[in-house]
Design goal:
With 301 residues, this protein is of the alpha/beta class. The chain is built from ten helices and 13 strands. The chain is globular, with a radius of gyration of 20 Å.
């Protein structure tokens, strides 16, 4: 019996020594008008978060939240923001400058090429710091339609994964006129021998993912929760990723939230890491403040 215990201990130690741990940094990103006042300012703020994460934790993966890469589309028109009373007034001034822009969708379509080019900055950061980066989401264009798309860059700077949001909010359908992504299984990507799968905000409420993601090691949910984070909203968060994980075999999960204000829009939320223990999902790391910039760290063995 004693020899058997020694053998099991040796196997356990060998597995630890030779298995690859995945170190993750989740950036609860606080944005403001200043963030998107220029492309250079956007780059400075994003790199500051990446640098802090790398210097603090040397992660393999850095995750930014939903919408992190959406609003550089507005940067070319930033001169109108400070002297305007409302979004409607800002948009009217933009329309007067460019008559092709008759809606917010037109604006994002007009700036799609510039934003797509700017996204390569995430790849430059990934290569510079030798880390994989999920650069949040942006509004991707096919020339006529827009989708809310997350994007991942590998440590050599290349785009290694993209995924479109399927279950859109009223803001996305009624105001921006986004299109839904494909309902097919997105698949996720591999990193450090771990299978990582993703959902974008509202998508996580759909139980369809439970079977499709059952073999994953880490489930990441990126959010831009555009309402005050009340008691009801906190309860709503428990019906997202924790509820999905409870019905699947995925052992680890991360919720990564956008916070702050831009134009007349507000975002609040609690970022967290959760772990499945038995049949229950336990939260073991949360952000300290639902409104501030904060980076959370954890390791998957």
């Amino acid at each position: 019996m004693k020899k058997a215990l020694i053998s099991l201990s040796l196997v356990f130690i060998i597995n630890i020594l030779f298995s690859e741990s995945l170190k993750v940094a989740a950036v609860q990103l606080e944005i403001s008008d200043l963030t998107y006042s220029s492309y250079e300012q956007f780059k400075i703020e994003m790199e500051s978060n990446v640098r802090e994460a790398v210097n603090t934790f040397a992660p393999d993966l850095i995750v930014f939240p939903e919408y992190a890469s959406v609003f550089p589309a507005v940067t070319p028109y930033f001169k109108y923001i400070g002297n305007s009373e409302s979004i409607e007034e800002i948009f009217m001034k933009i329309h007067n400058e460019n008559s092709r822009i008759n809606s917010l969708k037109d604006l994002f379509l007009e700036e799609a090429d510039n934003v797509n080019s700017l996204l390569n900055f995430w790849g430059e950061l990934a290569r510079k710091y030798s880390v994989t980066i999920l650069g949040g989401s942006y509004f991707a264009s096919d020339g006529e339609n827009l989708t809310n798309r997350l994007i991942v860059f590998g440590p050599t700077g290349e785009r290694i994964y993209e995924q479109d949001k399927y279950f859109l909010t009223e803001f996305e359908t009624d105001i921006i006129n986004l299109s839904s992504g494909s309902p097919l299984n997105p698949g996720g990507f591999k990193l450090m021998d771990k299978q990582i799968v993703l959902t974008i905000c509202r998508d996580t409420f759909l139980d369809r993912w439970e079977d499709m993601y059952d073999d994953a090691d880490l489930w990441i949910d990126i959010k831009a929760n555009g309402v005050e984070f009340t008691k009801d909203q906190r309860e709503l968060f428990t019906r997202a990723l924790p509820a999905r994980m409870k019905e699947s075999a995925v052992p680890y999960g991360a919720t990564v939230c956008l916070t702050g204000q831009f134009l007349e829009l507000l975002w609040e939320g609690e970022s967290s890491f959760v772990k499945k223990i038995g049949a229950d999902v336990h939260t073991f790391i949360t952000s300290r403040d639902i409104r501030s910039n904060e980076i959370l760290y954890f390791i998957i063995d």
